[in-house]
Structure formats: C-alpha cells, structure tokens
Write a structure and sequence with these properties.
Elements (H helix, E strand, L loop, with lengths): L1 E6 L8 H13 L6 E3 L34 H13 L2 E10 L5 E8 L5 E6 L10 H4 L8 E4 L2 E5 L8 H9 L4 E6 L6 H15 L2 E6 L3 E2 L2 E2 L5 E3 L5 E4 L5 E6 L3 H9 L15
Parallel strand pairs: 1-2, 2-3, 7-8, 8-9
Antiparallel strand pairs: 1-14, 3-4, 4-5, 6-7, 9-12, 10-11, 12-13
Helix pairs in contact: 1-2
Length: about 270
Amino acid sequence: MRASLLQIDVNPDEPVESRRERVASLVRAQAGTDLVVLPELWPMGAFAYESFAEYAERPPVFGTDASAADSPTAAAMAAAAADARVWLHAGSVVERAPDGTLYNTSLVFGPDGALRRAYRKIHRFGFDKGEAVMMGAGDEIATVELPDTVAGLATCYDLRFPELFRRLTDAGAELLVVPAGWPARRREHWTLLARARAVENQAYVLACCSAGTHAGVEQAGHSLVVDPWGEVLAEAGEGEEVLTVELDPGRVAKTRELFPALRDRVLGMPDPR
C-alpha cells in the first residue's frame, strides 16, 4: 500500500481559492498512490480563527456527489480524488452544521470521488479561546475501510488523548491517520506522541502537518509515518513537501502476534456484549 502525505504550506498571502486549486493539482499528481493525506484546516489555517466563519462549508452526505454540496473544498477534493483514482483524506474543513454550529471536520473520499467518511474533531484546542470556544465537539469515533486495512481518524490535538486511539484500535483500526496544524514550538511533542500512539496500539500512524506560518503561528511541519513497532519510516522537513512511503498492511497483524501486548490489557477492555 502506497501512502502520500502532502505537507502543505499555508501561506496567508495565498488566496484560499488559489490554494484549493494548487492542492487539487498536487492530489492529482499522486495518481498511482493508494492513499493521500492532507493537513488540518489547510484552506485557511488551523490558527486563523477570524476566518473560520467566513470559510465555513456544508459538506455532502455520504455517498453523494460533492459538487452539489455547499462546500467548495469538498467539491475540489472529490474531483481530484476521482481524477487520480486515490483514497483521499482531505484533511479538515470548517463545517457549518444546519443549526449553525461550527465543527472541525475531516473528510475522506473514495477513488470514485464520493464521500466515504467524516469525522468531527472531538478534542478542541485553545483552552478558553479559539477553537475551544468557537467550535462544537464531535462525539463519535470514526473508522473507514480501505483496501486491505481499516483506518482510524483523529485530528491534531486529539493526538494527546490515548483513550481515543485505543477506542479506534478496538473498532478495528490498523492505520491511524492524524492531520494537524501543530505549532513549531511544540514540535518535539508532535513526533513523540505520534510514535507513542503507534507503539501502544501496534498500528501505523500517518501524521500529516502543515508548513509555513499563518496567523502568526509557525507550523511544525515534520509530517511522519510510523510503523507498528514505533520506527519512523519517513519524516518531512519544515517546508512544503510530499512524503511517500510503502506500507505493508500485514505488518500490523505480525507485530501484534509477535509481541501480543494488547491481549494483556486489564483496564478499559471493550464491553464483550
């Protein structure tokens, strides 16, 4: 399985519409790849709080034509996924729900361009400001069946909460996908936590961060792919970059068989009912 992480430079001088077109072209250039992953809130930037309401979208419902939705990002990404014939985790957008609530929502498109899964970010960053007070919190975990594996979805600040990832593992996830707009000043936490989530769940972690500086916050970059043993298979630098790796879907089962730590769990076991 070939996966490509597109570490996008979210430059405030680049119009959002231009960035959509540019990113769509980058996705189309990944034809021949199985899975493409984009960062969190790449259209305007994860810290560009003043732009959230302006660029909020209403994504399509599962299995429908994204071009009919009030969501220019979803429409552009759906078309790019279909043209490249790839599974596309399109990072996240600001979703405006019918009741007006804003959510940080990840969208996954199939190779036919149809929306296959959405995930509303559960853990909102900012404590008493920003995303934490401007957006609603998701309340459901999300997985999506890909060819030969199951992906569990999380977003940025979620990475600090291991219980979410354990629930994804219990739901069958063998690949954990984490788009982010992680700040550079906590870059060491980013790489450390990505490896920790891989080790404790014996799963691949695909952690895709944005690059550049927006809203005065320098981004961490350093997108990385970690294998089920915690080894970093590939890591990007600080600028815009495409990171492509070959994954072995069977490695998860082999790791869990050779070092069966998950079966020794005592606390937090799933309800057998």
